[in-house]
Amino acid sequence: MGTAQHMAGRAVAAGCGGAYVRLIVNANGRNQMIEPLGDFPANVIAFQCHGHITRADYDAILVPAVEAALKKHDKIRLFYKIGGDFSGITPGAMWEDFSVGMAHLLRWERIAVVTDVAWIGNAIRAFAFLMPGLVRVYPLAEETAARSWIAA
Q: I want to staple 37 with a disulfide (CB 3.0 to 4.6 A). Which of 26, 46, 61, 76 is the partner?
């Protein structure tokens, strides 16, 4: 991730796949639950999520990154790591995830999801056939392989 100062109630820049997105820090000094990751090619947007994911997390972090990447690339790739401290996702966040995916359906080239959360891995595998791009699910122990695949 690019340099980011964590200051309560302030927006700071964070690098994500060659693009910069806003990393919103709550008034209590706690980051949003979706964190941009760095060290990926420019056509890859990469995130790690923690805790309980809300629509506000998607709207503040993921959606602007997708839109910025799509302005620069015809097709993009997504690396999405769901950490061991993941505790759930709100219906609003699930809808936003679906909406973003469908709005740009033909522009997703590859999607790598790294998680040990069984129900998420199973759901992604079950619906992967609906995506025009390649979709793979990796366990957390195989994060390096997922990073290599998404960048290849």
A: 46
